[in-house]
Specification:
Blueprint: H1 3-13, E1 18-21, E2 26-30, H2 35-44, E3 52-61, E4 64-73, E5 78-87, E6 93-95, H3 105-115, E7 118-120
Parallel strand pairs: 2-5, 6-7
Antiparallel strand pairs: 1-2, 3-4, 4-5
Amino acid sequence: MNKEQLIEQLNARIQNIEITEAKQILEISTAPNHLFNIVNTLKTDAAFSFDYLFNLMGVDVDDKLGVYYYFESTAHNHQLLVKCFGISRDKAALPSLVSLYPGVELLEREVFEFYGINFEGHPDLRNLFLPDDWNGFPMRKDYYDPINIVER
């Protein structure tokens, strides 16, 4: 399946997305309340078969929190970036994808720890790198470090 066919299938089978053709990878954007259902379709629908979530990263862009999910279909040999923005800074939350992709467990923990995004339904959401008594989320642009360990 080439990029044009993938775009055609995405438009035909999935609602509530915005598609962007980037230089190297096709991108779709969606709102947090549609994320789980869209990713479930991307994984289980034979037209897509995105069986491998190979990266997940938190972002803080223009005062908006978001998460980027990178998928690959080993059956169809194509990749897709799913961008999910519009996450509230005060109550940052997204559905966990651990039930669909068990290997994402540690990546979600890392984003939780550094960006403060709660992954609802995650089986073990706790700090991975920082001490348990750490205050704040050091990768957020609004993070203040009184002893200048992190300087922006």
